[in-house]
Design a protein that fits this description.
Elements (H helix, E strand, L loop, with lengths): L4 H11 L5 E2 L5 E2 L2 H7 L3 H13 L6 H14 L7 E3 L1 H12 L1 E4 L2 E6 L4 E7 L4 H4 L7 E5 L2 E2 L5 H8 L6 E8 L2 E8 L1 E4 L3 E6 L3 E6 L6 H14 L4 E5 L8 H9 L6 E6 L5 E5 L9 E5 L6 H13 L2 E4 L7 E7 L6 E10 L15 E2 L19 H21 L1
Parallel strand pairs: 13-14, 14-17, 17-18, 18-21
Antiparallel strand pairs: 1-2, 3-20, 4-11, 5-6, 6-7, 7-8, 7-9, 9-10, 12-13, 15-16, 15-20, 19-20
Helix pairs in contact: 8-9, 9-10
């Protein structure tokens, strides 16, 4: 095991990418400044030595170093800064790609009845072909009973190798039955869309991940071909995701103007601009207290640079950005808060949120027992539609 200061200093020097020279007798030579830096880590050496001398059972020093890395980042006390294990990196890559081996359902832990409940069934997925529906309750996976507290384990069993079979026991109203499905490559459906009356397009964005930009662009093309003249974008409960996706969506509607800017601890500022050309259409965005981060970037950009309106309640207020780093092993990494971001109007929403142009609360009876919105009672949606109609009428009046 590692016991000598000479070996620990060598390892720390390599980890910190210090400049060093290796003599013929394997003695490591570093300059005074680097040595003083390494003295900060003497406690780690002491801990390793005590473990080596006294710890009763076998251990893997790499596991200890992994834990130390997690602890160091966790000690920042920043909920947005954390360590990525190799498994975390793989999951992040899967989320970014927007494809995975699975059944094609989105589930949630239902607090009303402690079941795992299906929120959405993706089009063309094994789940849809197998007849699963929104609000079905999954009460067992491969014969093992499951409930809301087992959500992560259940999802892990449903995802996996393409072609492998998964048997779900479903509770639908008062009927219980089994469905056996074969996993397939599933494309996450990140948006829901439809064309409402009066040529108004509606898009709900669930999160900023995967191929959202491709799905959104395809929907915009379909709307334009169908003669859509106004747009409602629903960002409620969207906690954000990848900033570049929010930027790509904003670029659809902003013509050669600012999308947002960011500034780091040294005062270095970068401003992101949209390309020339845009779809000039009246837009209303719906937000609530859970609309955060990339959702707020998109909403702020469209309000300031495309004349959009915001309807709903004050947004979450996450006006900071994180940078992701991959370590030299290529398997682990970290993210840490690195910048404040600002709307085109120069406002940082951190801790404050975006104020709606038209305030609208969601009535308590607008959700059913499975937390699905009842459109007829959805005052935020209804208000957004009325507001975009006003914008469309004003635009028609100006054109006349």
């Amino acid at each position: 095991m590692i016991k000598t200061k000479k070996m620990l200093v060598f390892l720390l020097a390599m980890l910190l990418t210090c400049g060093c020279a290796l003599a013929a007798d394997d003695t490591v030579t570093i300059d005074k400044d680097e040595y003083e830096r390494l003295q900060k880590y003497e406690k780690l050496e002491e801990i390793l030595n005590v473990i080596d001398d006294a710890y009763l059972w076998e251990y893997d020093v790499n596991d200890l170093l992994e834990g130390a890395a997690q602890g160091m980042i966790g000690a920042l006390g920043d909920e947005y800064s954390y360590y990525y294990t190799a498994s975390d990196v793989a999951d992040a890559e899967e989320n970014y790609a927007g494809e995975y081996g699975g059944l094609g359902i989105e589930v949630f832990a239902n607090a009303n009845d402690t079941t795992i409940t299906i929120r959405r069934v993706f089009y063309g997925s094994p789940a849809q072909e197998g007849g699963l529906r929104q609000n079905d309750k999954i009460i067992a996976v491969n014969g093992q009973e499951t409930n809301a507290y087992d959500l992560n384990d259940a999802v892990s069993q449903m995802r996996g190798e393409v072609g492998g079979e998964v048997t779900l026991t479903i509770l639908r109203e008062n009927e219980v039955f089994d469905v056996t499905l074969a996993r397939a490559i599933v494309e996450t459906q990140i948006i829901d869309s439809e064309i409402l009356e009066d040529n108004i397009g509606y898009i709900r964005i669930h999160y900023f991940e995967g191929n959202l930009d491709t799905q959104f662009a395809k929907t915009v093309e379909e709307f334009q071909a169908a003669g859509v003249q106004g747009l409602v974008i629903d960002l409620r409960d969207n906690g954000g995701g990848y900033v570049e996706l929010a930027t790509a969506l904003a670029d659809t509607f902003i013509d050669d103007d600012v999308i947002f800017s960011c500034e780091d601890k040294y005062g270095r500022r970068i401003t992101y601009y949209a390309d020339p050309g845009a779809w000039d259409v009246p837009i209303v965005l719906i937000m609530n207290q859970y609309s955060a981060s990339a959702s707020e970037i998109l909403a702020g950009a469209l309000r300031d640079s495309a004349g959009a309106e915001l309807v709903g309640t004050v947004s979450f207020g996450k006006g900071i950005m994180q940078s992701v780093y991959t370590f030299e092993d290529g398997q682990s990494g970290m993210q840490t808060t690195s910048d404040y971001w600002y709307t085109p109007g120069g406002v940082c929403v951190h801790g404050e949120g975006l104020e709606p142009d038209v305030e609208a609360e969601l009535p308590e009876d607008a959700l059913d027992e499975n937390y699905n919105l009842i459109r007829e009672k959805d005052a935020q949606f209804q208000t957004a539609v009325e507001e975009v109609k006003k914008m469309m009428a004003e635009e028609t009046k100006e054109a006349a």
